[in-house]
Structure formats: C-alpha cells, structure tokens
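SEQUENCE, STRUCTURE TOKENS:
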Amino acid sequence: MVSLQQHYCRLARSTTLILAFLLGAAPVHAQLCGEPGRDGQAISDPILNSYFTGSDDASLAAGSRELVLTRARGSYPLLPGDLALLMQVQGATISTRNDRRYGVLASHTLKAEWLRIDRVDGGRVQVKGAGAGGGLLHAYHNQPAGPDHGRARWQLVRVPQFDALTLDQDVLALPWDGFTGGVLALDVRRGLALAGHALNVDGAGLRGAPAVSLQGALGNPDDWRYSAPNPEDQALGYGHHGSKGEGIAGTPVMIDPQQPGYPEGGMARGAPATAGGGGNAMDMSHRLLASGGGGGNGQPGQAGQPQSGGGLGGHKAPPGPWLGSGGGAAARSVGTGGDGGSGGGLILIRAAAVTGPGALTLRGNPGSAAGKAGGGGGSGGTLWLDMPSDVSLSLKADVSGGAGAAGGGNGGEGQSLSADGREGFPAFPLSGAQAGFRCRPAGHWISGRLFLDNGAADPAQAFNARFDDGEQPVVARQLRLTGVGVRPQTVSTDRQGQFSLRLSEAESRGQSLRLSLTLADEERLPALPVLNRAPAKQQGKQLEWSLTATPDRHSGPLAIGLVTLPQWQGAASQSVPVGGKAVLTFRYHASVSGQVHFTSNSEAVSGLLMDRECSGDSERWQTGSSPGWNVVAGELLCVRVPVAFDGSKRTVTVIARTQPAGAPQGFSLPTQRASTQLNPAH
C-alpha cells in the first residue's frame, strides 16, 4: 500500500505543472482550486485529516491571508497546494437568566469556508480564499469564556485530495479535545467507494458532561444554572446539581477546569444552546435520587426532585456543518456513572460519486447510568455533501442521537446537508476552494467566455480574441450542449461572461457532442471562434462547434469575442411650425473605435451639425465629401440636423457608416439608418 507521503512525492510536481496549465487559462482560472488528486488512490492510516488552531486569543479578520498556528494534531503536515477547511466550532451567545429562558440562542458566529494553502513558513501559513483580495470570506476568533460569553474556538482542518478512493478499512476522525478534532473531510476527484467500510465519527463531536458526587450546598432545587464547584469544594462534595454538556456556546468547567466555563455557571438543568442541561440535585434534605441529565439537542431528562428537575434537552442546532453537542450529566450524591454522551462529529465529502456498500455513521454517544439516574445522550453529527447534481447518494447517513441512560434524555438527531440542495439534503453552500471534481472533472468539460472584443481601453487590442482590460463581459447568455447518450445541458454566462459545461465520466465515451450559441440581433462576429483548433460553423445567428466526449479532457477556453452595432437613433417624430425651422437631434453611441461617416439625402437637409459631446454646442458643418469622424469605443456624440418645414409631412433620414479600426479583413459593420418624421405643429 502506498502512503500519502509517497503520493506527495510522486504527484505533487506533475500535478502542479498540469494544473498550472489547465487552471491558468481563462475562465477556469476563476475557480479557486487546490491540487485535485494529489493524494493518489489509497490510504495507509484510518485518520486522514490533520487539525490546527491558533492561540487562545487568535482572531482572524475577513480578508486575512495569513494564519499563525500554534497547536496541531494528526500525521500530515500542511503543504502548499493543500486543501483546508476553516471553521468556527464554538462561538454562540445565550441568555443566562436563571429561569426557563436560560440557554436560548441569542446569536452565533459559526462559519466555515474552504481554503487553499499557498505557503507554509513554520507556524505561519498563507492561504487563498473567496474573500476580498483572495483572503478569508469570514472572520474567526478564539476567546476564553468571560462574564457574558462562553468559550469560542476555530480550527483549520487539512483535507486530503484523492484522485479516486476505494476504502480497505474504516476511516475515523480524531475526537474533539476542546481545541481541534471531530471532523472527517475528504475530496475525491473521481468516485469514493466505501467497499463495505465506514466513515465513522460516532461520538467524535463536542463532549458530554462528566458526573460528580456532590452532597449539598446553598443552591435552589429549581435552579436553571449554578456555579461549578472549584477543586477544593469538589473534593469535599460541596455543590449542587449535574454539569451541563459542551456545545456551540462553550465548555463547562467540569470538562475543562482550565476554562472559566459557561457564564453564570455550568451546572443545573438549563440547556446552554445545543448542549444538554445537567440534572438538578436532590431535595434540600439530600435524601432523594438525582434526576437524569438532558440530552444534547434532544429530549429532557427524567423528573427528579423537584418534579421538573430533569436536565433539559439542548436547543436545536442552527443549520450548518457543525459538530454534535454533548449531553448533560446526572446529578448524584454518591457513586460513579451518570455521564452525558458526546455528540457525533462532522463528515464532509466532496466527490464525483459515493458508492456502497458501507456506512456513514455520525451518531451521538449514549449517556451512562448512576443507579436510577443517568446522563443524556449526545446529539447526532452533521453530514455535508458536495456531488454533481445528477449523481444520487444510495447510502443513508446515521445521524441519530445517543440514548439517555436511566432516565436521561435521548440526544437529538443531527443534520444532512449538501452544497447545492438535493432531495433530503437541504442546501448549505460553503464558499472558497472548489471540489476536485469541479476543478478537474473526470469527464469531459468545456469552458469559455463571451465578451465585447472592442479594445475599449486600448483600440490596438480590439479584435484580438482576448479579454483585455476595459472590455465588457457578455452576461446571462445561454449556451447548449447536446449529444447522444448525454443529458442536454444549458448554461448561462456569469457576471464575468464565463461559462462551464461538464460531463460525468460515464457520459464521456467517445460520442459526438454539439455546442451551440445563438447571437443576438445586434451582435457581430469579427472572426469565427475556434474550439479544439476548429472554427465554429455559422448559419444565420446560430453558431455550432463539434467535439468528441473524452474522459479527463478539457475543451477550451473558448474565447467568443463579439462586437455590437453602434447605437444610432433619433426621435421618432417632431412637430414643427409650418414655414418654420427646427433642429433634429440624432445620437450615436460608438461600440468600436474607428471612423463614422454621416450623410443624409433628405431634401430638407442642407447639412449636418456635429455636437461632439451632446452639449448643444455645434462643432462645424459637415458638407461635400462627408469626412469621417474619429470615434473611440464607448463615446457618445450627437448629430444635429437643421431643417426647413413647408407643412408637408416628411421623414428625415440620416445614415451612419462605421468603419472599425483594425478589423479583420472582410469584416464590416452594416450601414445604419435613423429617421425622424416631421409633423405640422398645431
């Protein structure tokens, strides 16, 4: 079996060169990509991901390109060209009132995005993202708990980029440890075959609460939140209630004694955001058994003393690729057990296809029992899927919550999401570096751009079949791809005039394809655009290109440089007093640079008056040989036509003949006519 590190040596250089060629040509370069397929087709370790984070107060501003990493877990270092997921794991604020409103989610900063690693210099990592200047799209922050907020924590996850992958063992994630972990993410350019194995993140998410023996304090049996005992009080059994679980709003002291914990205390039955609440203690005489802890994102624990004392189930998680939350602990006076279960982890799959048999398991762990009281189960995790829209997933992910023990609440169900929305998978898009199957599809793909090739910024660059500075993209134009054995595809150009059409590997079997585009009435082609060294065939306004569907083949980029006719118009009609004179105005908006000649054969016209900036100030009469007027693309000028009117209805027509500068031999723009009808004024 070949290790990932060996794959680096074999693939990194060749893949980099290939992708530099493919991705460097517009419009594919508009996609942000890692190096699809660089990790090969095999694994040697059940833990595929590595995890990183910064210092406890490290904040990342939107637009940042550099991350300073101080903590790492996993076997694989970050290298340039790697794909990574940046996510805010914790960072929600809640109500901390000591009543039934405790734990209601006030706001959250949970975000995630895909990044490409561009440079690694020790702990300093430069990334490329979808934000301003190629930086981060969102802001992220690490922050210890404070008086009005719980702990906040982000992590960066290295994501392997496989060419194809057939599992020969189960794949796992390192469990969340308060800083990193809980995520299993992979990118597969071709298909992912589970081959009877599992992607398993059961219980790898946010942690369940530990139960502790406490024998009394000055709390209220009806508390929704209560301070956690310090180590000295805990040794004496001095305190009340069970601990809350870990969730998106923070980590209780009972899980991490080095942290301040939840605001106003991490004990008692109130559920902090998605985490389960702890069971309340016995009655004030400390004689009766404690109630069960609440299940994270799920059901409440059993009633204890008082009857309403069971820990509440955590609130429903906001939509998104987040870790499952922990269940609350049972409150108890003696013995062991009663712990809450940890939540399920997060699985992110980006692949051209996912096939079974096999399993995707993201279950929350069950709680444990302490006599007649028990902890709540953890909530299920999240599956996030990015696959071609026409490829179905035959496997059902298990995102069930863990069972509560001895009356503890069951954990709630997790989420199944997708990048673009599919049946049973609500849409939750993540921006940034694209999936390998999108950047480098296993099947045939065609890309290109439509633009006005008029040299708007530099007339010398007109008609060169390149998209140059100042030239405008042609947006929202439809191209259609058809062929035997493929589903017809229609795509519209985006805001940059770009388009991309992709076939699956199964659709790329050597059959003939046809790409077609219909020109608008005002559009002209200086030259027939070439695809795969063959020019388009044109019949009227219809353009067609023929090609053959081939696996791993990119046709393009297809540069479709158009020019449009100048806008040449006058008022439809104008009323003039009989025997009077009028000045008619015609407006010319240049679409290309060159010369334009204006003439009129109307009897009422004795000459043409040029108004270069349409300001009302005439420049000179145009007479005799009709000299050409130099224009540049985008320029607006007016032609003013003095006429004498004898009362007879007549139409005044002015002709514009445009001669583009630098046009290919044989290309010309048609003569344009604009007319105004003269009517007697009443």
